[in-house]
Design goal:
Elements (H helix, E strand, L loop, with lengths): L2 H8 L7 E4 L5 H10 L6 E5 L20 E8 L3 H4 L5 H14 L5 E4 L3 E4 L2 E13 L2 E12 L18 H5 L5 H15 L6 H9 L7 E2 L2 E2 L2 E2 L2 E6 L5 E4 L5 E4 L4 E2 L5
Parallel strand pairs: 1-2
Antiparallel strand pairs: 2-3, 3-7, 4-5, 5-6, 6-7, 8-11, 9-10, 9-14, 11-12, 12-13
Helix pairs in contact: 1-6, 4-6, 4-7
Bound molecules: adenosine-5'-triphosphate (ATP) and biotin (BTN).
């Protein structure tokens, strides 16, 4: 990643401080430590390679050098945002989806934390928090996006198929510009986090809406039709008997139904 290009691309955004690494274990680990040490709102960690990138529940996230976006954005949540913490993953997912729409691509959000292009995972999101007593003091929004084809792990490492921006747009995708658009989108959407229209946009972008799905939660399979979201961002399904089922955040892996 070209650091000068990066500086130029991000110069108009109201970011806090920016830390860039050619290689790092995990940008989220760096950002969590930085947030604990007092980083300002909208401080950003960027890496050209991660050697220990993490997904949810410590699953591995691969970020080979020079091929992907791996960032962690620190938020100091306002009191209003603190009452909508479970929506933050949606904020990041919508910002990623908007950055793709700008490039003429229609993506879907695989609830809760992945963005799909042509039914394949192009980006993943990991939101983590820093606590001060029983109050959230900082949020770390980690976003990984496969930009070039080489970012996509081989099939045997995956439980869900993956793709890259390059597969849809060709090789001339500028990572710095995509990063700018994701951040600008997130910053613009942030004031709307608590609104009903925010949930409506998130719902509209969901993969498998109106279709049968089989989320696996804590090892057991639930079957139902995906209807939408609750106000806290939980997933709403309806079973064959018409009974409403709420799938809460946690160890959930969403899969299409049969
Ligand atoms: P899924 O529903 O995709 O199985 P999950 O919820 O179990 O997702 P996540 O925590 O969302 O898992 O994502 C981590 C998983 O993503 C890893 O287990 C790995 O299979 C996959 N993965 C790792 N790196 C990449 C990458 N660069 N692109 C796409 N998928 C990746
Ligand atoms: C997932 O799909 O489980 C989420 C993947 C999140 C990956 C990003 S890459 C930048 C940041 N640093 C990490 O270690 N993880 C997130």
């Amino acid at each position: 990643m070209n650091q000068n290009e990066l500086k130029k691309a991000l110069s108009k955004l109201p970011l806090g401080d920016v830390r860039y690494f050619e290689s790092i274990g995990s940008t989220n680990n760096e950002a969590l430590a930085w947030a604990t040490g007092g980083a300002r709102d909208l401080s950003l960690v960027i890496a050209d390679e991660q050697t220990a990138g993490r997904g949810r529940l410590d699953r591995k996230w691969f970020t080979p050098k020079g091929t992907a976006l791996a960032i962690s954005l620190i938020l100091r949540p306002t009191d209003g945002e603190k009452s909508h913490l479970s929506r933050i993953v949606g904020l990041a997912a919508l910002a990623v989806a908007d950055s793709l729409r700008t490039r003429g691509l229609v993506s879907q959000i695989k609830w809760p934390n992945d963005v799909l292009l042509n039914g394949r995972k192009v980006a993943g999101i990991l939101v983590e928090s820093v606590w001060s007593g029983d109050e959230v003091d900082g949020l770390v929004i980690g976003i990984g996006m496969n930009v070039l084809k080489e970012a996509v792990p081989s099939a045997e490492l995956l439980f869900f198929p993956a793709t890259s921006l390059e597969e849809s747009l060709g090789p001339h995708v500028e990572r710095e510009k995509v990063l700018h658009d994701i951040l600008a989108g997130l910053i613009a959407l942030r004031p709307h986090l608590g609104s009903d229209s925010f949930i409506a946009s998130w719902e509209k972008a969901l993969a498998f809406r109106g279709e049968q799905v089989q989320p696996e939660q804590d090892g057991s399979l639930i079957t139902g039709k995906l209807i939408g979201l609750e106000s806290d961002g939980s997933l709403r399904l309806v079973d064959e008997a018409g009974k409403s089922i709420t799938v809460r955040f946690g160890d959930v892996r969403l899969r299409p139904g049969k």
